[in-house]
TrEMBL record:
This is uroporphyrinogen-III C-methyltransferase. Its EC number is 2.1.1.107. It comes from Dialister hominis. One of its GO terms (biological process) is methylation. Gene3D superfamilies: 3.40.50.10090, Cobalt-precorrin-4 Transmethylase, Domain 1, Methyltransferase, Cobalt-precorrin-4 Transmethylase, Domain 2. Pfam families: HEM4 (PF02602), TP_methylase (PF00590).
């Protein structure tokens, strides 16, 4: 039996977290993903890494693929036995032509499911602080296509009934027709001073909201250069925005922030910033790879673990590379059972916790100097200490411990390499002044970032620099750049808090 199936998935209006749980699951099962212009690419992280991605995006004026060709493509992939995720912006059945695709699939005998999505008609307004109904203000709302030419003879929109028949009127695909829409509504009795608004790219960090009145809406489109995609809303609910705004008045809203961490580590910082409405651009400056000595040092440490008293980690990567290697060698957690464990900070301690291991020493501040002090009462001369960590790292920790008479063995757990893959993009966005903040989470991100600028530090004029702590900040100063934000809690959350408080 053919197992092919097409899921028509409502991808939501943009904020990736507005994808439904069912949509996420089906996307994760798909062999083929057929994506739209309005379906936000960030949700592709839920797809299988080897899934085929086909972009069939449609944008006013430049159709990549005709509707019937898209429907045929879905049917063909389904017939081949593939699981297909057809991602559509918002909800597939709200002006999404989901029904047309289903008709073709049904005729082709291909199984399908429709997974509703959060429509931009409601969500874009919600993110602008405009509820579609509100007690005492609006008891009804209507969603209307603005794509239809309202003057055409056989308009299927009953303007005479619509104008005053629903409290909140929400038009999609309407920007180019605002004048005609507004004049029809006023002609049939809607007051010219009715509040109205455009919400463009709703729910995304670059959302734009323009409030106006029915009378002035068309003029504003021209004067303010409002372009699709936008939702046009008419009704008294628009006034509620003043008190109900929440998304676009946060300090980080719309701030374009570069993340310089390695690709594997970028998402935690990016997610935390995006949760606060920032717009993140990932330009990894380092990549994390296996140790350059082909695990020789680490294998030796692992082989002789029974001789050690302490195992100290200075990064999450160190923890993961160490335990992966331990398990690869056929050992398990019993090999570290006799050891005391220390982590340089809470993120490293949390990583240990994932292996079910408690930590015997986390310093109050998260620097090597503090860890040395914290360890002082806990170790005695002659203690043997293993530190699996990055190849290039400061010597404060081993030297501090050695000065207490400990026998310290630093082994290479991983190496960091400069990643220059994003250099062109970086220079382009800096040249075009499309960056507000650059974040640095370690000295090596600073060095490798600066390296990519080829000495053109003037490109950073007007760009704020945010560092995770004083050591990273000092690394910036080596380039005669004074950081604007230096976190005094040396964690990702601490950095995000400091950026939120410190940006201007
Ligand atoms: N199925 C989609 C609508 C498709 S029609 C949904 O349910 O949201 C395309 C129109 O939707 C655009 O012209 C615009 O009016 C609106 N739209 C889609 N996403 C939007 C967004 N993030 N912000 C504002 N308008 C959006």
């Amino acid at each position: 039996m053919n197992k092919g199936k097409v899921y028509l998935i409502g991808a939501g209006p943009g904020d990736p977290e507005l994808l439904t749980l069912k949509g996420k699951r089906c996307l994760g099962e798909a062999d083929v993903i057929v994506g739209d212009y309005l379906a936000d690419k960030r949700i592709l992280k839920f797809a299988k890494p080897d899934a085929e991605y086909i972009y069939v995006g449609k944008k006013v004026g430049c159709h990549t693929m005709k509707q019937h060709e898209i429907s045929e493509l879905l049917a063909e992939k389904g017939r081949e036995g593939k699981i297909v995720a057809r991602l559509k912006g918002g909800d597939p059945f709200v002006f999404g032509r989901g029904g047309e695709e289903i008709e073709v699939l049904r005729r082709a005998g291909v199984a399908f499911e429709e997974i509703p999505g959060v429509t931009s008609a409601i969500a874009a307004l919600a993110y602008a602080g405009i509820p579609v109904t509100h007690r005492g203000v609006a008891a009804s709302f209507t969603v209307i296509t603005g794509h239809e030419d309202p003057t055409k003879d056989k308009s299927s929109i009953h303007w005479d009934k619509l104008a005053c028949g629903s409290d909140t009127l929400i038009f999609l695909m309407s920007v180019g027709h605002t004048e005609l829409i507004a004049s029809q509504l006023m002609k049939y009795g809607r007051s010219p001073d009715t509040p109205a608004a455009f919400v463009r790219w709703g729910t995304r960090p670059y959302q734009e909201t323009y409030t106006t009145t029915l009378e002035n809406a068309a003029k504003d489109v021209v004067e303010k250069g409002i372009e699709p995609p936008a939702v046009f809303v008419v009704g008294n609910v628009v006034k509620l925005r003043e008190e109900m705004r929440w998304f676009d008045n946060r300090p980080l809203f719309g701030k374009r922030i570069i993340i310089t961490r390695s690709r594997t580590q970028a998402s935690r910082l990016a997610n935390a910033l995006e949760e606060r409405s920032a717009c993140c651009i990932e330009i990894p400056t380092i990549s994390i790879e296996a140790p350059s000595d082909d695990y020789a040092g680490m294998d030796d440490g692992i082989e002789h673990l029974d001789e050690y008293n302490w195992l100290i980690f200075t990064s999450q990567n160190g923890v993961n590379y160490f335990f992966n290697r331990l398990f690869e060698k056929g050992k398990d957690l019993r090999s570290v059972g006799h050891l005391k464990l220390a982590a340089i900070g809470p993120a490293t301690a949390k990583e240990l916790k994932k292996y079910g291991l408690n930590n015997d020493c986390v310093p109050k501040q998260y620097k090597a100097e503090d860890l040395v002090e914290e360890m002082r009462p806990l170790v005695k001369a002659g203690d043997k200490i293993l530190i699996p960590r990055a190849k290039v790292a400061r010597s404060v920790l081993p030297e501090g411990l050695e000065s207490m008479g400990c026998d310290v063995n630093v082994v290479e757990a991983y190496t960091t390499h400069p990643d220059k893959g994003g250099k062109e993009k970086l220079l382009e966005i800096l040249e075009n002044k499309k960056v507000d903040i650059v974040t640095f989470t370690s000295s090596s991100t600073v060095y490798n970032f600066m390296d990519q600028l080829d000495g053109r530090t003037e490109l950073l004029k007007g760009v704020q620099l945010a560092c995770i702590g004083p050591i990273t900040a000092d690394s910036c100063r080596k380039y005669h750049l004074e950081p604007d934000v230096v976190s005094d809690v040396y964690t990702i959350d601490g950095l995000v808090d400091a950026i939120e408080k410190g940006v201007h």
